[in-house]
Amino acid sequence: MNGTLRQRLRREIRILQEEPWLMAMAVWLPPLLFVIFWWIFSVGSSFDLAIGVVDLDRSDLSRTLIRQCDASSAMAVEQQYATVQEGRRALVGSEIYALMVIPEYMERDVVLGMSPRPTVFYNGQYILIGKQINGAMLKTVGTLSAQIGGLKALATGAALPGVVGQVAPIRGQIIPLFNQNTNYAEFLVSGAIPAIWQILIVMVTAISLAAEKRHGGLSGWVAGKPALALFSKLLPYTLILWLQGVIFLVGMYGWLGWPMNGSWAALILAQLLTVLAGQAMGSVFYLLGRDAAQALSLAAVYTAPSFAFMGVTFPATDMGWPALVWRSLIPVTHYINVQIQVANYGVDPWRLWTSFGALLLFIVPMMLALRLVQRLAVGPAVDKVSPAGGEVPA
Amino acid sequence: MTWWEIVKAEFLAVFSSHAIVLTVFGGVVFYSFLYPLPYNHQTPREQAVLVVNHDGSTLSRKLERMVDATPQVRIIGHAHSEDEARDRFLKGKVAGILVIPEGFHRDLMKGRSPVLIYAGDASFFLVYGMVIEGLATATGTLGAEIKVGRILATGQPMSLAVKQHTPLGVNMRPVFNTTMGYVHYVVPAVFVLILHQTMLIGLGLLGGAQREQTREGVDGYWLRVPAGVLLTARLALFFAFYFVLAMYYFGYCFSWYGIIHLAKVTDLLALITPFLLAVGCLGIVIGQLIPRRELATAIVLLSSLPLVFSAGFIWPESALPVALDKVVQLAPSTPGIKAFLRLNQMGADFSQIRGLWLQLWLQAVVYGGLAWWLLRRRQLFYQHHLVGGGEPLSLDPIEVDPTRHRAPPVVGPVPGDGVGPEGHHA
User: Fold this and answer.
1) What ipTM, to 2 d.p.?
2) Do B61 and B202 belong together in one domain?
3) Which residues of B touch A179 (CB under 8 A)?
4) Mean pLDDT computed over every residue of chain B
């Protein structure tokens, strides 16, 4: 097919309009998925996690402890059990996330100064939930202990200012940096959305190239000007997918009002480079075998685990070198680096040249894609060649 | 065609498709190495902490040494001021800051309870938790030592003093994943999802490819053998594949990664069976609904992250929006992940996962029925429109020659269905 850039772009828009699945993945599914992610975590960070109690003491103090656990925003006492065995069964069946066993004679031991210790068994299989309960429990018991200690000190005749020093010789003030309300959900969402965006970028690229095969054949498409053919094929999606990126940025840092401490321009530039990098990979995946199913299988293997490598849940600083090597090959990990540094820390974009540089290195797969298109232009009519994969023997 | 011949034909179809082999076998094996890779170190330990020491007393340096000695954090250096610490933080490589106030030692001795400042990067939940835990542990220990010293000063014996420094304590014991390791957290759940997703894609690709060929005029066996026979043959084949792959994951991989597995083999098999049947039937349904095979991969890939976040192991089920929680109950992965974790990692007995087990059976039956109906409907459609008047379905091997090509289809490609004249030529 020949034609000027303008004609080719107009044709690409027509193909997009004729392809409902491509239209869905490039245009309306991305914002829908962004909203779904926000929705999943929309409850935020304070939730009443169900815990159970076995109260073997049955004293005023044990009842106070249970009440204070229930009053914590992170926990709710769901059930009391008569025996540890019953409580254990509930914990194992995930009816409760933690089981507090209050020992016999707890109140008496407190009075005698024996420092009794209730035991809390919490579900470590769900790490995030377990850590929430751990923190809330330590705080609740610590507060109660301090109250008891304060009363004891007062009872021995200490003056009020001195009581604080006796109960807690050293105090700590915790300052959460960059995420003042320590809202983990916000942070997860701000990582999950770019992850799904990258999946869409790579997929849309492969599917748009596959659409060409159905709309006129690849040979006709590359004939004459292979570079222009590739450029005009990718450009409309570059713009659409870039816009999708800007949409989620505006959604997160504008509409939802999450703190944005740095340069919008730097973020938006990083997004453009991420789109181009993803398009390079998507093009290579398709052009290698020129089979849509195989291209998407490669895209799946490549992009599906990206979220784990982004370092949003588990920090990249604690990954081993094999993980860091794979991580560096995925565009969105460099993008998320820029997003966190710029939006959360307000870092000067110039300090992030390594991330921008890494994204620029995806020029290599882009050159490879170009090379494959050029080979297609001079090679035999590829549309007649059986695709490399996917045919069920008839 | 006999049942076994259909199984054989489907087997050949699977192994002649690069995309299916790549996803089902390549994907499952590749992911078994790749997914746990970021978490090899299990917990983020020894986080880098900067100290701003405005006091400079011996006691403050003792506190620094105690902080450094905790497994959670290590001190990587000192800053002269909070501003300098903040600046170095932004340059990276620092996870937390400890500020020791001026007059720390003096205030402590006078019983004035000095205030230390622990600052950590709250964006990263795990890092933040580690930093605060490390700093709080070290100061707690120092505080306790001082209290014990004071009690000793009143003439109490050491044994009593040690007990008395806190009126009420608490033992926090993580269970199931006792080390709170990240591999042990992610792998058991995500591996179930990988089996689920790759099986859906594999079956979707197979069904989608047959639809494409049907449109191109190939008169395949899938149009001629009874729908129920085709369904059971395909299901049996993928069940066999995924049974082996599930054994690889739950057996070999879990042992390799040292993941706790408590379930009895019979219980595990009793759960794997409805899980694979439900996923298999859903995969066949997807294969009948998509116009082109690659869309199976696209749909399933896009569903992965939403499914994993709403499966209840990352984010508590009680904190999910109710409507969303209802919708994700349709995916076998949701009851599947919960049931496998409870049975295998937490040691629940089978009666405790019966509800989830029944949910999987229900899905298997409903999706199975739907799959049968869709396969049958398509067969009737093509027999009616293309063959003209419905050839009787037959299991007679002579009747069906799978390589026979029909005349070009009478009906053109469905608009928007996307197969133009440049489609595949087998």
Assistant:
1) 0.90
2) no
3) 121-123
4) 85
